[in-house]
Write a structure and sequence with these properties.
mainly alpha
Amino acid sequence: MTLHSRLQRQTVKKADALGRLLNKHTFANMLANDTVGVKPTQPVRGHLFYLGSHVRVVAALLIREMSTRFGSKPGGYVWAFVDPAAHILFLSVIFMAISHTPALGTSFLLFFATGYIGFQFYQAMAGYLNGALSANRALLSYPNVAPIDTIFSRYILQLGTTTVVAVFVFSAINLSLKTPLNIHWPFILEAALAASLLALGSALANNVLFLKYPLYEKVFGIVTRPLFMVSGVFFLPDSLPHPARDVILLNPLVHVVMLFRKGFYPEYRAAGFDAGFLYSVALPLLLAGLLIFTGSRRSLRQ
């Protein structure tokens, strides 16, 4: 056999081996890209990765918000408890000097705590969420940080903070009562959820509108300032005369406070409370806020 024929046979063998190797990898690639087995799972993996990325970003923002809100001030965590307790005590002292008994029950502290804490599930949430984008504007330059992440991180932090404060306040009040509290948790949890949804819906829209229209931010602050006075914090809406009661009940926060109080006063009938009206305001407001926010997500990064 000549040298030329030997080289030709070796070349053929190498070509066959390379062909088998290529066929093997081609089959493996075809199996990996099989339209039956993998194609349905690829979107699932993509969505899970996207969701996991947002969860990590929200967790990081949550830690940052905790450190900047509470860690940068002396006694920051303590002040979160002292502030609502001082408001409740102040209202109790004033109304104890005016009246011998509260409008409901026998404890001024409990009556004003149920009104103030129920209202705070909206007011503290809305006030904190309204500044989410402006406070984290620099972080939006990172592609992994979405504008909605700043809202969710503050929502989780404020809801947890108000819940812990409520547990602390009502536990302290319970120690001062002659009979222990008879708590009905479904009413309390529903009221807290409805109040937080109202705050979330308005904040989603306000974060966009505040940046686009600075005058709207000033007008919104002026218009919403009297909410504390007309939300049933220190009075019972159903005890008002007929024309005034009908006007007051147009405020959804009145229904939040009434529902919250029902969780602490089993005897409270809450005449005029309308859950259908409450959610007919909260859910459309949330939807409108989401539409405004998602429709402006590109301009929010600029």
